[in-house]
Write a structure and sequence with these properties.
oxidoreductase; iron; 15 strands; Dimeric_a/b-barrel; heme binding; metal-binding; 14 helices; alpha+beta
């Protein structure tokens, strides 16, 4: 089979390919579109950063994403908006059942959020600014022109701090990411990935490319006969007679996650009876890595902290099954290890031959990966400072951002089934030790336990784990390809004019 051509990097927003690690300053602006024609005029010329490789790293970057409400405000036809996925159109906070599945109840409930919680007032546009140290204010001034101020109303300004890749609880972050198969080296054939692989089809990140099922995600396709402006969009790969509004774009999920850093370390200290070594051990077991990022199971080679899976630790004696990274990425293949021949595959497909009670409860990971692009906010508190009785309770946490082609199958599945799920991998009565809201289920089943199996005897259990992370805002956005963004801008300017 011939390899597909390289993607058009000039049409892809840089954030999909680069985390902007060399740009430590960042500011996220959540905007309402108050004047569509002016918004369109600003968007037509906005210096959006593309994924094209530059020989000299950029000093600044700009990325833009839009919510379903924002697409409406930009005058995109309703029929085209309906071509996007249902969860994007409905939004993160508008459906009570979705909120329950995501764990957004009680203190996490959308009515308490600082932004995004009121379905009638979801910000239309998300503008992400990045800059080298000391350059952010000037970059913002350059972007926030008088036209910008006439076009938009700022709903929220999310500031960030340069935490040097340490998240607020004190752990190295941003270590494990899927390797995106930009060059189409791997087929999406269902039987070539029996074991865990970190390489992921481009169609799991960008719309308009084949995903891990060998299929294309749902997205709006246009006919140039009905809309001559659509000619500026790329052609759809599987239907070249149609233009693709989704191609080279990604969904962007954003959640503002407040972290109770003092509560986290003080609880662990109490569990460890003040013993610093036990405290660190418990913290690392909750995350699944030591604070410096070393995984709790051996990686091979040891110099690469991302080359491991959990098959040699089926009962979670080294890395508890419920640890954050094991829930967020169980590193499973399509079949458990040792299942290679046709016969043993069939045995597994029909549900026989389970070796561990959790085997069949964890789906193959390659269908549920996320590309994380979050940034930290708030004044940092070291674990030592957090242990002091007078540790400050300032707003601090993570502006969690992830990119994907299917919000439901990727972000929502990981958040709901794996992170919040109280029956993950055979463990009961638990949810993610970092993220869980600790609320009992409808049948009163608790979710506030955390078990650490030991080689010597029964699992050591913690009960009454407090809530350490609280949701303070969130939304579903679409980060379009750059040509699609210019098309949206053009819709806003031309249609708004034609109305007057
Ligand atoms: C305040 C909240 C959070 C904190 C403090 C946190 C912390 C961490 C840390 C320390 C790691 C290990 C470092 C790494 O591999 O990069 C990690 C990994 C990860 N987290 Fe989180 N995280 C948070 C929220 C979330 C959420 C909401 C999700 C998704 C629903 C998520 C998904 C992941 C994934 C997919 C990984 C990589 C797992 C792997 O591939 O090994 N995290 N997180």
């Amino acid at each position: 089979m011939s390899r597909p051509a390289e993607p058009d990097y000039q049409d892809i927003q840089a954030l999909a390919r680069f985390g902007h690690g060399s740009l430590p300053e960042a500011l996220f602006l959540l905007l309402d579109i108050t004047d569509p024609a002016k918004a369109g005029a600003w968007l037509e010329a906005a210096p959006v950063s593309s994924a094209e490789w530059l020989d000299t790293p950029p000093e600044t970057a700009l990325q833009i994403a839009v919510s379903a409400g924002g697409l409406r405000a930009l005058q995109l036809d309703e029929a085209l908006i309906e071509g996007f996925s249902e969860e994007f159109i409905v939004g993160m906070a508008a459906d009570h059942n979705r909120s329950r599945r995501l764990g957004d109840v009680t203190d996490n409930a959308p009515q308490h959020w600082a932004w995004g919680g009121d379905p009638e007032r979801v910000p239309g546009l998300l503008v992400l600014l990045y800059a080298k140290s000391g350059r952010l204010a000037a970059w913002r001034e350059q972007i926030q022109t008088p036209l910008f101020n006439q076009a938009f109303n700022t709903v929220s300004e999310l500031t960030t701090v340069d935490s040097e890749n340490i998240e607020p609880f004190g752990f190295s972050d941003g270590i494990s990411q899927p390797t995106i198969d930009w060059e189409g080296r791997q087929t999406s054939d269902l039987h070539r990935r029996d074991a865990y692989s970190n390489l992921l089809c481009l169609g799991e990140l960008l719309l308009g490319y084949r995903n891990e099922y060998g299929q294309y995600a749902r997205r709006p396709l246009l006919d140039t006969d009905g809309d001559p402006d659509a000619a500026r969009l790329p052609a759809a790969e599987e239907q070249p007679n149609l233009q693709d509004l989704g191609r080279n774009g990604s969904y962007l999920v954003m959640r503002q996650l407040h972290q109770d850093v003092a509560g986290f370390w003080q609880f662990l200290d109490q569990q460890a009876n003040g013993d610093p070594q036990q405290r660190e051990q418990l913290a690392s077991r909750m995350v699944g890595r030591q604070r410096d990022g070393t995984p709790l199971v051996e990686s091979d080679p040891p110099s690469d902290p991302n080359q491991f899976d959990f098959h040699a630790d089926p009962h979670g004696q080294r890395c508890p099954i419920g640890a954050h990274i094991r829930r967020a990425n169980p590193r499973t293949g399509d079949f458990p290890p040792g299942v290679t021949g046709l016969l043993s595959r069939l045995v597994r497909i029909f549900g026989f031959g389970r070796r561990h009670p959790g085997d069949d409860l964890i789906a193959s990971t390659r269908f549920h990966r996320l590309l994380r692009r979050g940034r930290v906010y708030g004044e940092q508190l070291s674990p030592q400072q957090a242990l002091q009785a007078d540790a400050t309770q300032a707003p601090r946490g993570l502006h969690f951002i992830c990119l994907m082609a299917d919000i439901s199958r990727q972000f929502e599945f990981v958040q709901n089934a794996w992170s919040m799920g109280p029956k993950f991998g055979g463990v009961q009565n638990e949810s993610d030790p970092l993220l869980g809201n600790r609320q009992p289920l409808a049948n009163d089943q608790p979710t506030d336990h955390f078990s650490q199996p030991t080689a010597q005897g029964p699992a050591q259990g913690i009960h009454a784990l407090p809530q350490f992370v609280t949701v303070r805002g969130g939304g579903y956005f679409f980060m379009p390809g750059i040509r699609a963004l210019r098309y949206l801008a053009h819709c806003a300017t031309s249609r708004d004019k034609s109305k007057s």
